[in-house]
User: What shape does this take?
Amino acid sequence: MSSKIIIGQYVPSNSVIHRLDPRVKLVTVFLFVIFVFFANNTLSYGWLSVFAITSALLTKINLKYIIRGLTPIWFLVIFTFLLHLFVTHEGQILFQIFGLPIYSGALIQGGAISLRFFLLILMTSLMTLTTTPIEITDAIELLLHPLKKIKFPVHELALMMSISLRFIPTLMQETEKISKAQASRGVDFKTGPLKERIQAVVPLLIPLFVGAFKRAEELAMAMEARGYQGGEGRTKLRELSIRRLDWSAMLVFLVVIIGLFLFRQ
Amino acid sequence: MNKRTTRSSQLLKLIILSLFGTIAMVLLFLNFPLPFLPPYLKVDFGDVPTLLAALIFSPMAGVIVQLIKNVLYLIFTGAADPVGVLGNFVAGVTFVVPVALFYHRFKGNKSLIPGLVIGALIMVISMGFLNYFVLLPIYSAIMGWGDMSSQAMLSTILVGIVPFNLIKCLIISTLFIPLFVKLKPWIKQKQALFN
Assistant: This one.
C-alpha cells in the first residue's frame, strides 16, 4: 500500500487558496460542480476555464503535480471525446479517418464535454490538494451545525470522522504488518483459486478487528480520564473564522457566476 | 472487565464504529477487478466491517460505518467519482441492513446464511432500480451520452450490474461466513460489555 493514501492528496503550502476557510472552499467547489453544467458556449466555457486555471495557479502547487494527480481520469476524458467524435453526426464532414467521417459538430461537442469533465475534476482535486482532511471534517461539522436543531448528532459524527482520520495511518501500517506476518507463515494472497484467495483474507481481518477493539477501549478510557463528556460546552483547538480573504473569494466567485449567466446563451 | 456505565459504553461504541469505518476504508484499497467484468466494477472487502458492526451492535451501526467509509473515501480520493461512492453506500446499506435485521430477529449461526441470501437479493434488486432511475441517468448527463434509452439502460443493468452485485455478495459472504464463525465467541464476550 502506498504512502499516497496515507496523506491523502494534501500538499502543504501557504498560498492564498490554502489559507482560505475550508467552509468557503467546500461550498465554492460544490456550487462550481453544479454551475459548470450551465455553460453552453465558447465564451461561458472559456470564462469558467479561466477561473479554474487561475485558481490552480494560485495554489502555487507545481502544475505538473496537479496534472499527474489527474492521470486516472485522463482515460475517461479521452474515451468520452472519442465516443463523441465517432457517434455524433452534426455539422459538416471535416475529414475521414479509416473511412469514418468526422463531423465538425462532433469535434465541438466532444471537446465541450471533455472540458466540462476536466473542469469538474480539476476543481474538486484543488479542494483536496489544498485542504487537510481534518479541515474538511471541521468544515463539514460547522456546515451541518444547523441540523442539530432536528436532533441530528452532528458532534458525534464529526468526532467519529476525526477519530477515523487519525487512525488511517495506524491501521494501514497494522494491515501491512499483519499481512507480512501471515505471508511469512505461508498465507498466499496472490495465487491459487479465487475462493482460497478470498479466504486467505480471514487471518488478516481477525487480528485487525480484535486490535481495533483493544485500541478503542484504550482510547475511550483515555478520553474519559481527561473528562470527555460529549459535545456540550466543548472547546476547539482549531477555530475557523471567515476573514477578509474569504469574503473577497466569495465575491470573486459571485462575479464568476454572474459572468457565466451573462455569457451563456 | 467491570460493567460500564451507559455513557462510557456509548463512547466506546462510538470509537469502535469509527475504527471499523477506518478499517473499511483501508480495505477499499485492497480491491481486485474480476477478470471477466469491466475494470470500473471492482470488488472490495469494504463491506465486511460494516456487516460485522451491524451484527455486533445494530443495523444502524452498520449504516454509520458505511457512511464513515464512504465519506473518508470521498475526502481522500479528491471526490473524483461521487456518483460511484453514492452507489457503494446504498449497495452496502441495502445488503447489510436486511442481514442484520434477520440475524437479530432469529439469533444463532443458522440464521446468518438465509440472512445473507435475503440481503443479497434485496441489494441486487434495489441497486438495479437505483441504477435505472438515478445513477445511469446522472452518468449519462455528466458524460453527455445524451439520454440513454431505457432499452440500453436495462441491458446495461441486466448484463453488467446485476451479475456484478451478485458476485460481490457471493465474495463477501465467502469471506464473511468463516470470519464470523471464528469470531463468534469473541463477539459474544464483547457484546456482553454493552448489554
